[in-house]
Design goal:
By secondary structure, this protein is of the alpha+beta class. The protein has three domains: about 1-180, Uridine Diphospho-n-acetylenolpyruvylglucosamine Reductase, domain 3 (2-Layer Sandwich); about 185-285, Alpha-Beta Plaits (2-Layer Sandwich); about 285-365, Alpha-Beta Plaits (2-Layer Sandwich), CATH 3.30.70. About 30% of the residues lie in helices and about 25% in strands. The chain has 14 helices and 18 strands. The protein is globular and about 65 Å long. The protein starts with a strand and ends in a 15-residue tail after the last helix.
Amino acid sequence: MLKARDARDAENAVQWALGEGKSLEIIGQGSKRAIGRPLATDMVLDLSELSGVTLYEPEELVLSAKAGTALAEIEMLLAGKGQRLAFEPMDCGPLLGGPVGRGTIAGTIAANLSGPRRLTAGAARDHLLGFSAVSGRGEAFKSGGRVVKNVTGYDLCKLMAGSWGTLAVLTEVTVKTLPKPETEATVVLLGLDDAAAVRAMLAALGSSCEVGGAAHLPAATAARFPMGEAVAGGRALTALRLEGVAPSVAQRSATLRAALRPHGEAAIVDDMVSRRLWVAIRDVTAFASARGPADEPLWRISTAPAQGPALVGLVTRAVEAQVLYDWGGGLIWIAAAAEAAEAIREAVRTLGGHATLLRGPAQLRASLEVFEPQPAGLAALTKRVKEGFDPKAVLNPGRMWAGV
């Protein structure tokens, strides 16, 4: 294992691997190591010691940190100034059978992880202002800056976010921060079926109430939920989050409850319980390893919100599955046996979207496409981009697609 203490160490490690014809697996704290196709690299490049916040200007809403800095450390620092990472990154630890709080800022950006607030705040990539990195050519480079309006050159931030360490080793990132709301509340509807819940969520999102989270847990999923019995009482749970100053949240809650009367009787969950509820939705704790095998296959599917129930219907007619809807129905988590893979791929081909096997045993991840298969033209472009940044396939080779 190679341990980088600073950006120069990371550069030297890649240059060594390039010269020796070796390949590297890039890790921070390893919290997302089990996502993607299994790797068979020659060496591990560990960035966990490349840690620390290098700049934080609360008044400018900007923070820079080294790649291995723990998200928990960053979130604690921001909370002390009444701020947060608005894209609400999930903690993958419980889902993958690991400890809580091990995710790093660069790993989060490389995976482009975004939570329930993705609907209104945007994805992780939308909050990445700039970065420093080392390409697979062994060359250090930078992109972006430390201000929101920075359009110099190519927007490589969008390219790095979601590349899973296959193009470059991130050594430092700069992200946008935003004020934390004074309070929040959640309007809940109980007992709706999937289609009715999606209609209710879309009605809420289309209202003037500024809904900052919309999720639905069918009864079977709610029963696996840590707070399921207390909040849902054995019934399906549809949750709609409102954030802001207290008078605004109170007024919007009342307005939303009235608007949702055609969909069912709504109740209010107050601030403290609401925050715990949305952390559990963000981290998909209904499917955490404590409630099933650590390698139980779990799929993450993005599709048009209105198509969500139909897509789930196609899958559940073929195999048994448990589901959770987020993003108003546009993000669907499906826990099902390994045999569900073809049914899920076929449902996505039929109704549109893309599916990622976020969790599964290594044998399963090696035997099928973990990320959404690409059309020929896009696959060729992806390969050319990989060759441009990493022509000798030094960095995380094959993690996303075979041969890339």
